[in-house]
Design a protein that fits this description.
With about 525 residues, this protein is of the alpha/beta class. It folds into four domains: about 5-205, Rossmann fold; about 215-370, 3-Layer(aba) Sandwich (Rossmann fold); about 375-420, no CATH class; about 440-520, Ribosomal Protein S8, Chain: A, domain 1. The protein has helices spanning about 15-20, 30-40, 55-65, 80-95, 110-120, 130-140, 155-160, 165-170, 190-195, 230-240, 250-265, 275-290, 300, 320-330, 350-360, 370-390, 395-410, 410-420, 455-465, 495-520, and strands spanning about 45, 75, 100-105, 125, 150, 180-185, 200-205, 215-220, 245, 270, 295, 310-315, 340-345, 365, 440-445, 475-480, 485-490. Strand 10 (about 270), helix 12 (about 275-290) and strand 11 (about 295) form a beta-alpha-beta unit. It is elongated, with a radius of gyration of 27 Å.
């Protein structure tokens, strides 16, 4: 079996059709290793970071096996409702042509809405531990026909205190199921969970590559989907890159962006798998010679590129695989030179950004989009610098002509005309200000609730005391028995998670101290 190609894996035609429509050209490492094992029927423990393509790694074999109308056949457990919704959305898309029903269930959503959806026995259910256990206790989820159980981001769920819930859920699953466990780290508790609930699991390890990228300035811009192209153009105008490489996730996206940028005056070419070798060679020759200033490519098409003069790498689409991020930005900063790597991040993609930061062990700076006035000023500086550089070259013959022009014509008008010639190939500035008003909040599931003495007022006090949040920054709060949901600014999401993880660890230490004290 050729694991580098979805078509050779023995998958259903309907599924292959949706994989192609999704724009997946080749399996990621976690997919190429996991899918064949899963199709054999084995249990799997996979160590992989968020954003490596692991959702498709377990979603594809599940979709290849489930039968329409065969009741609930797969249960996927996620640590947060954001991830549950994301996983459900991706699997639902891949299963669309087979009419497979994928239902997310999580706290914060109307229980009545979920009950109505569950009455139809969806083939796949994705949910958070607390809400899944709630439905199981109500007997509103029937697991008698279950074929697959998946633990996604198991280490995070254990850090959040969900181990008792997970164990109760798995105990209610049929013994003769297939189980997949995915975790960024294989800590002892994760391994113990695998030993207890899995049958001879095979382990798949995706080892991270070099995690530090020296001399490359990395930053990101928050964008909304509607102004993504305009943001890219504004940054290109401001940065004035000598040679730039822009990455997109799919070849369709490459073609679309090439057309959009060329229509705006940015001379661009695209590089993807549908090009002939002759077309590829022609484009690469123009890029190396400087005739093409902007090259837009997919990850696969960019493999093997050896270009020393790329000053800027742009991630128009943030990569799902953190290693792909390293490969991409490594195209700049060659031969000891510095380089700039810029990533455009939508609200729903912040998790991918955080996974990349953990992978490279470095915080990526969030940049503020330059204003129109700042961009114009930057372009004026670039024009002046270009004039200064040209004036330093031997131009005696032109100096005689310049003296004649200045004597016979209006100097200011002639200077403006010369500048127009210089900037003739430059794209026109986008004169409209770009709307940067987009959803900047995160709805976080935390592992505390009424059992731990948390109510809305206590939650606010805790967050103000343990984080940099003020009362005004805290939005909706929803308290359940052992889990809660809180709305906070996206920029503070990691800080809030860490505060609750620290709180849970403190509670464990205190409980251990109390037990030892009683023994003594």
């Amino acid at each position: 079996m050729n694991n580098d190609n979805f078509n050779s894996m023995g998958l259903k035609n309907d599924l292959l059709h949706m994989i192609a429509r999704k724009g997946y050209e080749h399996p990621t490492p976690i997919q190429s290793q996991t899918i064949p094992i899963a199709l054999r029927g084995a249990d799997i423990i996979g160590q992989a970071q968020t954003g490596t393509g692991k959702t498709a790694a377990f979603g594809i074999p599940i979709l290849n096996s489930v039968v329409k109308g065969g009741k609930t056949q797969a249960l996927i457990i996620c640590p947060t409702r954001e991830l549950a919704v994301q996983v459900a959305r991706e699997i639902a898309y891949l299963g669309r042509s087979m009419a497979i029903a994928v239902i997310p269930v999580y706290g914060g959503q109307s229980i009545d809405v979920q009950l109505r959806a569950l009455r139809n026995d969806p083939e796949i259910i994705v949910g958070t531990p607390g809400r899944l256990l709630d439905h199981l206790s109500r007997h509103t989820i029937d697991l008698r026909g279950l074929k697959f159980a998946v633990l996604d981001e198991a280490d995070e769920m254990l850090d959040m205190g969900f181990l008792p819930d997970i164990e109760k859920i798995l105990e209610k699953c049929p013994v003769n199921r297939q189980t997949f466990l995915f975790s960024a780290t294989l800590i002892r508790e994760v391994q113990d969970l695998g030993k207890k609930f899995m049958q001879d699991p095979e382990t798949v390890l995706i080892q991270p590559e070099e995690k530090t990228i020296a001399k490359i300035e990395q930053r990101f811009y928050r964008v909304s989907n509607k102004n993504k192209v305009e943001t890219l153009c504004r940054v290109l105008d401001y940065e004035q890159p000598t040679v730039s490489l822009i990455f997109c996730r799919t070849k369709r996206r490459v073609d679309e962006l090439v057309n959009l940028l060329n229509n705006r005056g940015y001379k661009s070419e695209g590089l993807h798998g549908d090009l002939s070798q002759r077309e590829r060679d022609y484009i690469m020759k123009g890029f190396r010679q400087g005739d093409i200033k902007v090259l837009i490519a997919t990850d696969i098409a960019a493999r093997g590129l050896d270009i020393d003069l790329v000053t800027h790498v742009f991630n128009f689409d943030i990569p799902e695989d953190p290693d792909s991020y390293i490969h991409r930005i490594g195209r700049t900063g060659r031969a000891g030179r510095g380089g700039v790597a810029i990533t455009l991040v939508e609200s729903s993609q912040v998790r991918l950004l955080r996974a990349i930061e953990r992978h490279i062990d470095k915080r990526i700076e969030q940049a503020v989009l330059p204003t129109l006035a700042e961009t114009i000023e930057q372009q004026e500086k670039a024009i002046i610098n270009r004039l200064v550089e040209i004036s330093a070259e031997p131009i005696e013959k032109l100096e005689v002509l310049a003296e004649k022009i200045l004597a016979e014509y209006d100097p200011q008008a002639m200077m403006a005309a010369a500048l127009k010639i210089i900037v003739a190939d430059s794209p026109e500035l986008e004169l409209a200000e770009i709307d940067t008003d987009f959803d900047n909040t995160a709805h976080i599931e935390v592992p505390v609730g009424k059992v731990q003495g948390f109510y809305p007022r206590r939650m606010v006090e805790f967050l103000v005391e343990r984080t940099t949040l003020s009362k005004k920054q805290i939005g909706d709060i929803e308290i359940h028995s052992r889990t809660s949901y809180v709305e906070v600014p996206m920029s503070t999401a990691d800080e809030v998670y860490e505060a609750f993880i620290g709180y849970k660890q403190e509670r464990k230490r205190q409980q251990g101290f109390s037990k030892n004290k009683r023994k003594n």
